[in-house]
Amino acid sequence: MNWKSLLSAQRSERTPAYSEPSRSAFEQDYDRIIFSHPFRRLQDKTQVHPLPEHDFVHTRLTHSLEVSSVGRSLGKKVGSVILDRNPSLKTDFTLYDFGAIVAAASLAHDLGNPPFGHAGEDAISDFFNLHPIGKSFQDKLSVEEWSDLTHFEGNAQGFRIVNKNQYGLKLTYATLGAFTKYPCTSHFPNRDKSKRSQKKFGFFESEKKIFQSIASALQLKQQDENSWHRHPLTYLVEAADDICYSIIDLEDGCSLGLVRYEDARELFMGVISKNKDKLAKLDQLSSQQERIGYLRALAIGDLMEECSTLFLDHEREILDGSFDQALADLCFSRHALKDIIDVSVDKIYRARKVVEIEAAGHQVIPGLLEEFTTAGVHYMEKSKNRKYSNLQKLLPAEFEPAMAIHPSDYYRMLRLIVDFVSGLTDKHAISLYQRIKGMA
Predict the structure, then answer these.
(1) Domains of the chain
(2) Does the pTM exceed 0.85?
(3) Integer Cα distance of 70 and 73 in angstroms
(4) What Rg value do the Cα atoms of the chain yield, rounded?
(5) 405, 382 Cβ separation under 8 angstroms
(6) Considering the chain, what is the average pLDDT of its residues?
(7) For residue range 326-351, what is the model confidence (pLDDT) as tens digits?
(8) Single GO molecular-function term (predicted)?
(9) Contact 169/162 with Cβ under 8 angstroms?
(10) Is 84 exposed, middle or buried (0-12, 13-18, 19+ CB in 10 A)?
């Protein structure tokens, strides 16, 4: 793989690349995402602690902004060195282009997450795997299509969202490539989970041709018919996410009183190495909130330095496809990060409120899918039923035009229903479920 192709500003086969004098195509990507409807919905989607009552607890939106900020810095750090190593690139690119690509891809990285976080992903998959109505669709779909539905994946849903015409994002190929952490399909008999790029999947069968055209333009190396090697900047997007969720979830846990400050401080100290000389300032801070925030900032700074250095040390292997691991899993502080994650799992992710809302998600999401997929079947079969005719009216405006083109396509119908349900915010999902079940 080569950097010139990997930094393609092409937007689609029908939309040529262009930049403005004051704003590159990659900066335009960032702006398009931040003003989009799917991004705004992240304000009311669970990060760890759902429907937070405290303003210092992160939602998917604040998490995405922070990941994007870290990603931009990582991109610029790496880009500066890559440009020095490849002087011919300086004619067309600057370090800010690297930063803007990683920032935009990081900003979009959670767009496909359903209500109730990872519990929501499981609830959608369980509907098709376990629910009688969900299971009844299996004989109407191909093996590949059925695999998409029984293994709902937020990353693949995100790729679908950023490529849907209704949102008009038309992101550059470079940003779309960096966004795709798992460049493979759901139905992948030869999947090798020891490779980070194949741990999950990154696009549904419905978007496979779109990804193929992007991969071709970027000249991503293909591993087999179902998978490709990652875009190199994907490793920085992933690192930004790994850094933020592990460090900031611990900060939230401390703020909520789930983790003692003394324990959190010790865990942060395990990560902080290069910035130890700055710790003297800690005792000058008056509140625990300020102190934990300062430790978080120092830890993120050190992890960014470690991950960017690791990327540059392995640039050649990343470009030739022989490197396929998460940077955070190899960095100097990896053992300290594991300690943080272990404490977070025990003290934060299994907290009572988290467990309660996840349990609610497993009731709400299958309940919505049961009603709306049944309404979809009635629509396709032109069945006269007042209840389901009313439910059809609650579906997004694009449902009918999309189904008019392919009126007997069950996969398309189910994809549109899953788009609708997975796109709901936590509160909207609960209130809609209550209303259509007659509880409110």
Answers:
(1) 3-113+153-228 (1.10.3210.10), 115-151+351-440 (1.10.3550.10), 234-349 (1.10.3410.10)
(2) yes
(3) 5
(4) 22
(5) no
(6) 90
(7) 999 999 999 999 999 888 888 777 66
(8) dGTPase activity
(9) yes
(10) exposed
